[in-house]
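Exercise 7. Given the encoded structure of a 497-residue chain, write a plausible sequence.
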């Protein structure tokens, strides 16, 4: 069967939107699954809905990558967005045609092409996702390297080429998963300008004519399909082979920190897409961590002790889903500094995302490092609720008891791999966390509930404070833990509803 390209696609009978020719308006550092299922998808839909008429030229960020394959397919690839919306199963196929080509900067000829493209008057945006390790200062990177070794150094060199060519500044949209990603990238670029002696005029161009935007990305992208039978079936349906086929969840949202004019410049608002320009992304990151990540950490440990194994099945259990919703709607959302309706809509989407019929998300995989996760994701809402309402949040307090129960359930042994425990149904499981955390619980494996709870709550290394100083907390956690041990985690969850 033929590999996907424009000619093959025409012969396959595909009748969806396709844009074969358009000027390159985006220079994208990263050609992996995430950017192709996220950023390239948004721009592709904007082309269809608004006639934005732009293409993306991709840059392979490391020496090994997908350049040859992307160019062999003329930039085309198939994207499936899968999941659940309003309780309904969704499985959408779209052939993405926004990609013009891909280049490998470690090939001297390709690097020369990238440098020429950087001077193009059509170019408007730089997009990047070079992993968390990508935005780093590398003192070994120099302007005369072909190419400079780090991503920020490459970007500095290309922006310098553009500046010398007299072209307007660019909007840089950083998608790396670090705080203040755009601003951190700008700092490194400015450090290279100083190191390389590129002058005050170029520094002024960076600060006044280029816009470095921090962004928050949110879409789960499993990437390629691993089942060869499903791949074979899809090839028959499509009428072509596509080694670049990509899969993401149907939910997606992109927050871009920038001035109001940027929302009018970008094509997303006109296209009606879930992409938003906001004054700052920090509140939206807080919303994601507190609602999406906090929900995961808040319910999964007790759910696992109750006999559940995957997230989707938890959403089909009235008690566990009800417990999660009580925590989100009654305890987390009232303490967030954002529009309540907006947060509730996000929480409703979380339920759909957890109910994704295409993803078997294991509770044990979420349980990894739950001590630091509970502290970062649940504890801030827990403490803010107490400060605001002067009482304990019932669900979050029960979640803390479930965390202790998960880490202390019939402890069998401790090894380099983790701590072996046994859940009530007799299954053994491995608790994985920092060595000092596991050693703490192993040392307290024979404690009565009262002594164990006191030891956990007074462990300032865990929580940066003595939690027994919160009025009524120690007594309530002991009561909740005893309920989990005597009647089971599901019954304990039900008790707070």
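Solution.
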């Amino acid at each position: 069967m033929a590999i996907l390209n424009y000619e093959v696609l025409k012969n396959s009978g595909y009748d969806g939107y396709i844009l074969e020719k358009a000027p390159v308006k985006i220079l994208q550092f990263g050609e992996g699954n995430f950017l192709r299922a996220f950023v390239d998808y948004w721009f592709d839909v904007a082309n269809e809905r608004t006639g934005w008429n732009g293409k993306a030229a991709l840059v392979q960020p490391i020496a090994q990558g997908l350049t040859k394959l992307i160019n062999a397919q003329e930039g085309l690839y198939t994207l499936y967005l899968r999941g659940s919306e309003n309780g309904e199963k969704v499985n959408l196929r779209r052939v993405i045609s926004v990609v013009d080509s891909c280049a490998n900067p470690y090939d001297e000829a390709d690097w020369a092409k990238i440098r020429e493209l950087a001077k193009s008057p059509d170019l408007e945006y730089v997009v990047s996702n070079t992993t968390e390790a990508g935005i780093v200062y590398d003192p070994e990177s120099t302007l005369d390297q072909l190419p400079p070794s780090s991503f920020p150094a490459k970007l500095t060199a290309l922006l310098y080429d553009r500046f010398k060519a007299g072209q307007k500044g660019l909007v840089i949209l950083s998608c790396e998963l670090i705080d203040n990603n755009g601003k951190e990238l700008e700092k490194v670029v400015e450090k290279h300008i100083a190191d390389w002696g590129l002058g005050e005029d170029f520094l002024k161009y960076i600060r006044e004519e280029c816009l470095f935007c921090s962004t928050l990305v949110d879409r789960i992208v499993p990437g390629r399909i691993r089942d060869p039978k499903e791949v074979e079936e899809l090839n028959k349906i499509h009428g072509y082979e596509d080694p670049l086929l990509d899969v993401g969840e149907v939910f997606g949202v992109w927050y871009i920190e920038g001035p109001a004019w940027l929302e009018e410049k970008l094509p997303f608002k006109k296209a009606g897409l879930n992409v938003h320009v906001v004054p700052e992304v920090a509140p939206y990151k807080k919303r994601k961590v507190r609602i999406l990540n906090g929900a995961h950490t808040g319910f999964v440990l007790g759910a696992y002790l109750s006999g559940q194994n995957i997230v989707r099945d938890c959403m089909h259990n009235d008690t566990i889903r009800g417990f999660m919703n009580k925590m989100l709607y009654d305890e987390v959302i009232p303490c967030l500094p954002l529009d309540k309706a907006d947060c509730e809509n996000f929480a409703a989407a979380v339920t759909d995302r957890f109910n994704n019929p295409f993803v078997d998300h294991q509770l044990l995989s979420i349980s990894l490092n739950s001590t630091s996760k509970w502290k970062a994701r649940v504890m801030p809402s827990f403490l803010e609720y107490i400060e605001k309402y002067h009482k304990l949040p019932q669900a979050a307090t029960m979640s803390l008891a479930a965390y202790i129960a998960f880490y202390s359930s019939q402890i069998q042994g401790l090894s380099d791999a983790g701590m072996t425990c046994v859940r009530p149904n007799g299954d053994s499981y491995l608790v994985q966390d920092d060595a000092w955390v596991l050693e703490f619980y192993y040392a307290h494996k024979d404690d009565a509930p009262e002594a164990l709870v006191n030891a956990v709550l007074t462990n300032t290394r865990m929580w940066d404070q003595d939690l027994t100083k919160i009025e009524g907390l120690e007594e309530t956690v002991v009561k909740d833990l005893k309920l989990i041990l005597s009647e089971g985690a599901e019954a304990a969850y039900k008790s707070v509803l």
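Remark. The mean pLDDT is 96. Students should compare their own answers with the one above.
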